[in-house]
């Protein structure tokens, strides 16, 4: 399949397995980083802290994550939204945000329903158009928040182009939510972003058993400021979760190659399927941003969005019939999941905005997992056959 033999950044697997995890750093020589559950650490004198003052298990994970994002520093948070909140704590009342209009529903909800009440206004703009994005910038814009590929429509934003617009003003932070692509396929810091942020709950942990957020950056002053909002705001992950994410990350490169291969197979299968209206996958040559994809990314994850023919009834029937895929929110684990964005993940996005974006009743978002390709495709076929009667379309022609 086209593109499916592509691999991520060189040295990626070696970094995830070794960086921050040198067995010489603890007395036992343990090859697997120990879980340090202690919530307090002995001081050598009053106010004299051993090490960096963090938790050793979290330190391991942060060092490793910085390396895989190609950054100098990283910070771990209690959730993706905890990371978002802590980044937004760098702002003050009167500041303005420009955010991509097609965003993770929870980020959209946080900007609209929490930050807006605290005097920080957000303009949602279609950052796939640099003109529209530039027009949304204001003199008091202090943060630019983009997601690429977007959720759930998998549109791509040109990161260097957005960074260039932001740099025309002073002190504008550019944050890229890299959750869907993962650092295996896309490195926002290399493309000029200030912070690469991920919900580690998804691909990075990849096993559906941890909620966590991770950020990476190059600027030391920014790292210190964000460390302060983490420390002072309290969105800190547990040592046990840091251990699990570190463990999950060791196979990130292996999993991402397989997610990519399975997703390409699904996208190629659905694109000619008589019961399917459209398929959206950046790896398909017909995707509207495929050229940008080739420039900016080294492949893509298991996220495939499609519209089946018919209406909500057909979509509901499909979701009731599908077996290998589980009807559930979230994404990025080894198991295949299917989401109905309009009724589930994006229900909190105002209906007018959903309509404008094209998040309608027949739009479904797949998180293609690591099951056998043949089983995944056969399952999609049987559910489509049960949900969409071809004759009903022939009759209406
Ligand atoms: C899930 C998700 C988040 C939020 O992360 P949590 O860890 O669930 O808080 C942010 N951005 C994207 C793209 C996500 O998919």
From TrEMBL:
Q: What PROSITE patterns has UniProt attached to this entry?
A: CYS_MET_METAB_PP
Can you name one GO molecular function term for this protein? Answer: pyridoxal phosphate binding
Cite the Pfam families for this sequence: Cys_Met_Meta_PP
- What GO terms describe the biological role, i.e. biological process, of this protein? cysteine biosynthetic process via cystathionine; transsulfuration
Its annotated pathway reads:
Amino-acid biosynthesis; L-cysteine biosynthesis; L-cysteine from L-homocysteine and L-serine: step 2/2
Q: Which residues carry this modification: N6-(pyridoxal phosphate)lysine?
A: 202
Concerning InterPro entries, the annotation shows: Cys/Met-Metab_PyrdxlP-dep_enz, Cys_met_metab_PP, PyrdxlP-dep_Trfase, PyrdxlP-dep_Trfase_major, PyrdxlP-dep_Trfase_small
Q: Name one GO cellular component term.
A: cytoplasm
Check the record and name the Gene3D superfamilies matching this protein.
Aspartate Aminotransferase, domain 1 (3.90.1150.10), Type I PLP-dependent aspartate aminotransferase-like (Major domain) (3.40.640.10)
Q: Which residues form the signal peptide?
A: none
Name the cofactor(s) required for activity, per the record: pyridoxal 5'-phosphate
Q: Which PANTHER family match?
A: CYSTATHIONINE GAMMA-LYASE (PTHR11808:SF15), TRANS-SULFURATION ENZYME FAMILY MEMBER (PTHR11808)
Describe the family membership recorded for this protein in Swiss-Prot or TrEMBL.
Belongs to the trans-sulfuration enzymes family.
- Identify this protein by name: cystathionine gamma-lyase
In its UniProt entry, the species of origin is given as Stichopus japonicus (Sea cucumber)
């Amino acid at each position: 399949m086209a593109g499916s033999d592509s691999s991520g950044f060189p040295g990626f697997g070696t970094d995830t397995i070794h960086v921050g995890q040198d067995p010489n750093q603890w007395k036992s020589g343990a090859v697997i980083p120990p879980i340090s559950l202690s919530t307090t650490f002995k001081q050598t004198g009053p106010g004299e802290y051993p090490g960096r003052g963090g938790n050793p298990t979290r330190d391991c994970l942060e060092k490793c994550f910085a390396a895989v994002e190609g950054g100098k520093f990283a910070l771990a948070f209690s959730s993706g939204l905890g990371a978002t909140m802590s980044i937004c704590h760098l702002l003050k009342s009167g500041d303005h945000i420009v955010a991509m209009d097609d965003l993770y529903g929870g980020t959209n909800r946080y900007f609209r329903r929490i930050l807006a009440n605290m005097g920080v206004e957000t303009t949602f703009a279609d950052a796939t158009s640099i003109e529209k994005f530039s027009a949304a910038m204001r003199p008091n814009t202090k943060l630019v928040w983009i997601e690429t590929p977007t959720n759930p429509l998998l549109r791509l934003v040109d990161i260097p182009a957005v960074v260039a617009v932001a740099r025309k003003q002073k002190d504008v932070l550019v944050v890229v939510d890299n959750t869907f692509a993962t650092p295996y396929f896309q490195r926002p810091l290399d493309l000029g972003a200030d912070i690469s942020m991920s919900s580690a709950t998804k691909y990075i942990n990849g096993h559906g058993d941890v909620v966590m957020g991770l950020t990476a950056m190059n600027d030391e002053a920014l790292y210190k400021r964000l460390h302060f909002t983490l420390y002072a705001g309290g969105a800190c992950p547990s040592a046990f979760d840091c251990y699990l994410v570190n463990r999950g990350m060791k196979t990130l490169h292996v999993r991402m190659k397989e997610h990519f291969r399975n997703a390409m197979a699904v996208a190629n299968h659905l694109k000619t399927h008589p019961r399917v209206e459209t398929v959206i996958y950046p790896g398909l040559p017909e995707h509207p941003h495929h050229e940008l994809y080739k420039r900016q990314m080294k492949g893509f994850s298991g996220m495939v969005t499609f519209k089946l023919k018919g209406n909500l009834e057909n979509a509901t029937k499909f979701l009731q019939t599908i077996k290998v895929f589980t009807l559930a929110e979230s994404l990025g684990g080894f198991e295949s999941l299917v989401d109905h964005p309009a009724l589930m993940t994006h229900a909190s996005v105002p209906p007018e905005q959903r309509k404008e974006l094209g998040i309608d009743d027949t739009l479904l978002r797949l998180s293609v997992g690591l099951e056998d390709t043949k089983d995944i495709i056969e399952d999609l076929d049987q559910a489509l056959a049960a949900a969409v009667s071809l004759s009903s379309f022939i009759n209406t022609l």
